[in-house]
Amino acid sequence: MTPDEITKLIFRTALKERAAFDLLYRHTSAKLFGVCLRVLKDRAEAEEALQDVYVKIWTKADRFAATDLSPITWLVAVARNHAIDRLRARKAPAAELDEAQAIADPKPSPESLAQAGSDRRRIDACLGELETDRAMAVRGAYLNGDSYAELAAHFDVPLNTMRTWLRRSLLKLRECLER
């Protein structure tokens, strides 16, 4: 079947002509099944996917636009994308109970908690060396997630002044932490 004939079948399918859809299926299903099988690597799943692909073609045939590209290219893209979507939707098999012991505890270790506490004390001490409003601005920007504009309004300073405060404060913090 020529590309022009396939294009006409797609257009007739868009008009919901069952006979055209039947012909389209008979002339293209082998190729689209091959695409599904190549992606999914499972015959039964590829057969199910192929049926879903033709449902999509039936409902979305009106979206096909005749261009210089072959109409089979559009059909293959529909099949390939659907098969990839099915692959992504597969759920990973549940792990065996014995494998569960190998999974690491997501909570921090006592050592990392102690290190974090020490880091926190150092940062607090360095923030204490800054002017009070500068330290509050740094906490607002980097701990609370306040925007520069919000901080500028809160401290009643121009936006560029707030940017300068934060940049200079971060430089002072870095110097303090490097000591």
Question: What do these coordinates show?
Answer:
This protein is an all-alpha fold and 179 residues long. It has 2 domains: 3-89, Rna Polymerase Sigma Factor, Chain: A (Orthogonal Bundle); 99-177, Winged helix-like DNA-binding domain superfamily/Winged helix DNA-binding domain (Arc Repressor Mutant, subunit A, Orthogonal Bundle), CATH 1.10.10.10. Helices cover 75% and strands 0% of the residues. α2 (18-40) packs across α4, α6 crosses α9 and α8 (148-155) crosses α9 (159-178). The longest helix has 23 residues, at 18-40. The chain is elongated, with a radius of gyration of 31 Å.
Q: CATH homologous superfamily of the largest domain, by name? A: RNA polymerase sigma factor, region 2, helix turn helix motif
> Helical content, roughly?
over 70%
Q: What would you call the shape?
A: elongated
Q: What string gives the helices and strands in order?
A: HHHHHHHHH
Q: What is the total domain count?
A: 2
How far apart are the first and last residues' alpha carbons, in Å? 78 Å
* CATH topology title of the largest domain: Rna Polymerase Sigma Factor, Chain: A
Give a count of the beta strands, DSSP E runs of length 2 or more: 0
The SS-based structural class is mainly alpha
With helices defined by DSSP (H or I, 4 residues minimum), what is the helix count? 9
Low-confidence residue ranges: none
**CATH top level class name of the largest domain:** Mainly Alpha
- The CATH architecture of the largest domain comes to Orthogonal Bundle
Rounded average pLDDT? 88
Percent of residues in beta strands? under 5%
